[in-house]
Write a structure and sequence with these properties.
Number of domains: 1
Order of helices and strands: HHHHHHHHHHHHH
Distance between the termini: 51 Å
Radius of gyration: 19 Å
Shape: globular
Length: 296
């Protein structure tokens, strides 16, 4: 009866805690996308983006209020602003895509981001990319073509929006690598939420529609889920290396398909499933080659 109460997961290996943390984080992120997909049926995507960032900013201020003056100081303000602006652009593209496409399709195309990081790394980070990883990138983009189906009667130009989001997301993650170690994670979280909230607040009056109470609760819920998701992601990254956790990023595809089916009644098409399988396979192969190269 005098034994101390153990923290949840204390008996698990760090890699296991990291795996569970990142899977939980991407469940919450898929929840944000599901709510956004629902709200874009009634509101302009700009207002939905504003709701996502503004509600997250309220949560950040509530948690970090005593430390805000210290967190505002950054060693690299230009890169912080660029990084946050890129994430805002990715969110805007993706939420616009959600207003026109099924959640599973948009989420599958967004998963090309890791492949685009590999493709951009030689030019922006000076990293060497071998023929095997370039092959993985090309195969992954072929998977995106399976989903988009260019030249077919079912092709939608809206399918280019999540690819645009993936491009901005890849640049955002490269900027995050360049920023690594310059500021605390909490300073980065503050700028991520604050810059997006500021840009969206300037634009939203031109697209404003007054929500009902239930819709306002959903808008607040997006920020809450996103905030908790980012905290879970920070926790997971503190338990295991990014390379060890990278394959579990694709769990968001599973969550997006399940939540889209349960709450939106959207069945993923056969071509979406096939294209997603090709993208994930290519991404895992590129990840494997990066680990082999790191060990070498």
């Amino acid at each position: 009866m005098t034994a101390p109460i153990r923290a949840p997961g204390a008996g698990l290996a760090p890699e296991t805690r990291g795996m569970l943390g990142i899977i939980f984080a991407f469940l919450l992120f898929a929840g944000v996308d599901t709510i956004a997909r629902h709200l874009t049926g009634s509101f302009h995507p700009v207002q939905v983006v504003w709701a996502r960032y503004a509600s997250q900013m309220v949560l950040v201020i509530a948690i970090m209020a005593p430390r805000l003056p210290r967190l505002v100081r950054t060693a690299n303000p230009g890169l912080q602003l660029l990084r946050s602006g890129l994430l805002f652009a990715a969110t805007l593209c993706f939420f616009n895509a959600l207003s026109l496409m099924k959640l599973a399709e948009a989420s599958a195309l967004l998963q090309t981001a890791p492949l685009l990081i590999t493709a951009l790394a030689p030019f922006l980070l000076g990293e060497s990319v071998g023929i095997r990883r370039w092959t993985g990138v090309v195969v992954g983009l072929f998977g995106a073509l399976i989903i988009i189906q260019p030249g077919a009667g079912v092709f939608q130009w809206a399918a280019l929006l999540p690819l645009g989001a993936a491009s901005f997301l890849a640049l955002y993650q490269i900027a995050t690598r360049m920023l690594s170690g310059a500021d605390s994670i909490w300073t980065t979280v503050f700028y991520t939420a604050g810059v997006g909230a500021l840009i969206a607040s300037v634009a939203v009056p031109w697209f404003w529609t007054t929500p009902t109470f239930a819709e306002a609760v959903l808008m607040l819920g997006m920020g809450l889920l996103a905030g908790i998701g980012h905290l879970a992601l920070v926790y997971a990254m503190g338990q295991a290396s990014a390379s060890a956790l990278a394959p579990f990023n694709y769990s968001q595809l599973v969550w997006a398909a399940l939540l889209g089916l349960l709450f939106l009644g959207e069945w993923p098409k056969t071509t979406t499933i096939a294209g997603a399988a090709v993208i994930v396979s290519a991404g895992l192969y590129v990840w494997h080659r990066e680990r082999v190269r790191a060990r070498a």
